[in-house]
Amino acid sequence: MDIIRLYNDFNLEYSTEGHRHNRPGWVNCTCPFCTGNPGFHLGWNIRDEYYCCWRCGWHSTVKTLSELLNLDWVYISDLIKKYGINRSIINQKIIEKKEFEFPTGMDNLQPLHKKYLKLRGFDPDEIIEKWKIQGIGIFGKLGSLNYKFRIVIPFFWNSEIVSFDSRDVTGKAINKYQACPAEYEIVSHKKILYGNQEKWNTDLGICVEGPTDVWRIGEESFATSGIQYTPEQIRVMANTFKRIAVIYDDDPQAQVQAKKLIAELKFRNVDAFNVEIKGDPGGMTNKEVKELLQKIKEKWKK
After folding, report:
1. What is the model's pTM?
2. Were both Cys, which of 25, 40, 205, 209 would link to 241 (CB 3.0–4.6 Å)?
3. Span 197-301: which CATH code?
């Protein structure tokens, strides 16, 4: 579907490749379904022709266009036929895979990286040892992306580094987290779970949003890299754990996603349950984490 022509005709604001919310092959606009920070989170995949919001997940094309354009559903089918399939755009957006590499400028943590960790209540030496993180100073790039002033977080899968994420330490970056570009990943970070597989308890898994949440909760936890989980991640969870406690932030949209994830897991015969907290797991104190884990384990035994 020629989504750009459609958006232009209806005066709908959108962004394309090069914008901070866009990956190659996507056209983004504001999502009408989720709450939270504004931004172009709703993406239209040009090649495969579907909608997906980076915050709240997949949405029906008909329902989405109805909401975006403020039109009754009965008009949408004719609209889709009218705008058809734009093959010239589709053929331009095939991603060429490249050999995996980290950003340039990556080295041991500098004082600004350690300061960030200490302010978050982490012991830098412990995090370096457990999670093999490194830092980037004033210069660091990979492809077209800038990674300056970030902590680089490697993603291990089956004992191999397959991708990475990064966390801004200045508080000034638009994107707090910036992952490895898709063309450089050996395995997409959204098809696996972040954590230490060797330490997981298959009887009970603890699901959180991001790497810093894992660092806080402990090695028995794992992260979905944001609240938008994928079918591949659900399959990994269902094949790994018998029971899962989901601990997402107290943001309303995060809680909506937590409940959706639990429903998906239960459909796959995983005994999943929601654990609501104030704030986010990464911001908890060690004492609060200890008390929370005790409550989870007590509920697990019931």
Report:
1. 0.73
2. 205
3. 3.40.1360.10
